[in-house]
Amino acid sequence: MAKKKKFKRKKIFLLLFILFVIIISIYIINLVNSNNYKLKKIGYNEEEIIEIVKDKDLTDYLLKHEYDELYLKIVNTKDYKFKNIDKYINYYKNNSNAPLNDIVYIINNDINKEYSENLISILKHKYFIKDRLDRYLNYLNKKTDIDDVIRDVNSNLDYEFYTNTKKTDLSKDYLLIVNKYYYLDEDYQNSNLVTMESNYTKVSGAKLEKKTYEAFKKLSDDARSQGYYILNNSAYRSYDTQNNLYNNYKAQNGLIWADSYSARPGHSEHQTGLALDVASASTTLTTFENTKEFIWMKENSYKYGFILRYPKGKEYITGYNYEAWHYRYVGEEVAKFIYENDLTFEEYYAYYVEKNS
Ligand SMILES: [Zn+2]
């Protein structure tokens, strides 16, 4: 009886032992197969492994690659994205002078250019437009200040005036641009032209686009109620009218003079019906600047949706000499923004109209 009991106990003990060995074996097999163990074998330390295994994609990726501290450095950059990891590494191989944060920025923005500090400054500029990257980089041969480079290229100044011209996008309505790069067709005429009433214009029969005219009337009425007389001196001009005007200027004063004071046909804002030259009751265009009316216009015209289109100090961007008399309707909201940010319409158009289309 006692013998039998002893044997039974031995048997249980043996079974337990076998079970123990099985459990230990499973544990060891699991351990050897675990990512932690494999990462450790590749060369990562405990701390690194804790971070790595939080990300399954990254873990799988690193298990397939030899140890390289570059991986973890990249992973620790602010904007790292796992899907780009191979691209970061490739870029680094060809541009090992580039800071990793910059590499991540360049790749995340899908830029394929050799690294330079200028490149990064351009990419991070407030007014950077991706389509124009090559032009900015080329323009660095002409100017070094990045603000200048961005502003000039956005205003197309990397091209000579009247080169690389294109037909303006009429779908922009009140924000369409007409200048030395963008033109209107010979037969373009705004379909909403209205004839101005005589108490708003010094030239009888002058025409403006309807909404532009409504805004101008309001401006003129309000100014008048405060004692300022602001009248139209030249509004809509057809292609043919502009053609004659420009050719007369050219015949009288030469090409350079004509180009800085007058637009070539198709390139005049007056053809849009959205622009006009103003004068006070007793002045001509060129003396308007010295009037109290001009000061009033400078301070108030934006409230009615008009901008001083060719401002002083911006001749280089607009391509025109300063014109105290020429105003363009763009709507109240945009006029206010342009006024407050001291932009030319060229700059505004590149960044806020064209870029987002
Ligand atoms: Zn004008």
Description:
This protein has about 350 residues and is an alpha+beta fold. Among the domains are: about 115-155; about 165-355, Muramoyl-pentapeptide Carboxypeptidase, domain 2 (2-Layer Sandwich), CATH 3.30.1380. Helix content is about 50%, strand content about 10%. It is built from 17 helices and eight strands. It has helices spanning about 1-35, 35-40, 45-50, 55-65, 70-75, 85-95, 100-110, 115-125, 135-140, 145-155, 210-225, 240-255, 255-260, 290-300, 315-320, 330-340, 345-355, and strands spanning about 165, 180-185, 195, 205-210, 230-235, 275-280, 305-310, 325-330. The chain has a four-stranded antiparallel β-sheet. A two-stranded parallel ribbon has the order 1-2. Helix 6 (about 85-95) crosses helix 7. The model has no long low-confidence stretch (mean pLDDT about 95). Bound molecules: zinc ion. Zinc ion (ZN) binds near residues 270, 277 and 326.
Q: What characteristics describe this protein?
A:
357 residues, alpha+beta, Muramoyl-pentapeptide Carboxypeptidase, domain 2, four-stranded antiparallel β-sheet, two-stranded parallel ribbon, 17 helices, binds zinc ion
Per-chain topology:
Elements: H1 2-33, H2 35-42, H3 46-52, H4 56-63, H5 69-75, H6 85-94, H7 100-108, H8 117-123, H9 133-139, H10 146-154, E1 166-167, E2 182-183, E3 193-195, E4 207-209, H11 210-225, E5 231-234, H12 239-253, H13 255-261, E6 275-279, H14 292-300, E7 306-310, H15 315-318, E8 323-329, H16 332-341, H17 345-354
Parallel strand pairs: 1-2
Antiparallel strand pairs: 3-4, 5-6, 6-8, 7-8
Helix pairs in contact: 6-7, 12-13
The protein binds zinc ion.
